[in-house]
Amino acid sequence: MRALHVITGLGVGGAEQQLRLLLRHLPVRCDVVTLTNPGAVADGLRADGVRVRDLGMRSNRDLGAVPRLARLIRRGSYDLVHTHLYRACVYGRIAARLAGTTVVSTEHSLGRAEIEGRPLTRGTRELYLRTERLGAATVAVSDTVAGRLRDWGVPAARIHTVPNGVDVAAFRFDRARRQTTRAALGLPGTAFVVGGVGRLVPGKRFDLLIRAVAALPGAWLVLAGDGPEAGALRALAARLGVAGRVRFLGECGAPGGAAPDIPAVLSAVDTFASASREESFGLAVVEALAAGLPVVHAACPAIEDLPADRAPGAVRIGAGDPTEELTGALRHRMEGGARRLPPPPAVDHYDIRISSRRLLDVYAQALDTPTATPTVTPTERALP
What we know:
The protein is of the alpha/beta class. The chain has helices spanning 14-25, 40-47, 65-76, 86-99, 122-132, 143-152, 175-185, 206-214, 230-239, 262-268, 283-290, 301-304, 322-336, 345-349, 352-366; strands spanning 2-7, 29-34, 52-54, 80-84, 102-107, 114-115, 118-119, 137-140, 159-161, 192-197, 219-224, 246-250, 271-274, 295-297, 314-316. Helix 2 (40-47) links the parallel strand 2 (29-34) and strand 3.
């Protein structure tokens, strides 16, 4: 089988990193096309031996991308096209239909009121649903996302849940790596360090982590990630007088980058915090659990979709004041002392090898399913 994965961009992000990890474990010959932004993950994929092409899409309204992508699909004689992220799903489904190729799409970032961090509009949803019919299947990364798709009107028979996966061995705690990383980041050997990972965007609410650490004398914070909120978060840390106790690492794990990779960061910290307002999965939380860290989290379908005893090291902050609850939970962790936990059963549940096998089952079923016949033209108003 030959498959073409089509994704909106290949900068450092959860869906992009998940695609790279998946291709390492998927026993299928795969190429990748990015509509735009062939960033650090494109470099990583190429280092893994994957052929990556940049479609050179100039804007959200570059309708010429559809015939360009359709020609590429035809020339590659692919058995299946797999699309990732909203813009790639819309354009990729249409292009695959024009090329006469079966298409499967993964929904990575569908929230209740947002998609990929942008507000959901009626037009966005309408275009998504019209193009969804052109595919053979839609993959949800969590049961929560599957429920949201059903609520939108996607037929249940077309939805398949294939959770995001984690390379469990890569995140196993390493004491020597902890000491090396702490020294490189200038973290005191005995300091209590909170970790946060993700794009620095408003919905992740990293400002709450900074405020919580400011209320905990002696606590430090390490933030791994970059994004448009970086400047505002640095200014907040300075205003609260904790700039010296907060480490902004930028993008981590990029080929040739100076920052440590995420497993090293998680080895260096003592607890992990995720204050995201909304998530489709919560991959960073699962990675932290794989590293043996206690976790404090807000929204996290990866944990919420499982029985409570599957992640005993994870504590959810409730519906009260989020800053106060987060501060209280971190204070409790700090007073209890740094300790590593055995990776909980939830981690094995999300092993990338299991996810790859489940996705192969979706591919097999999709290739026996004829695609729908509606013709859709993308409209300017709906693309986010």
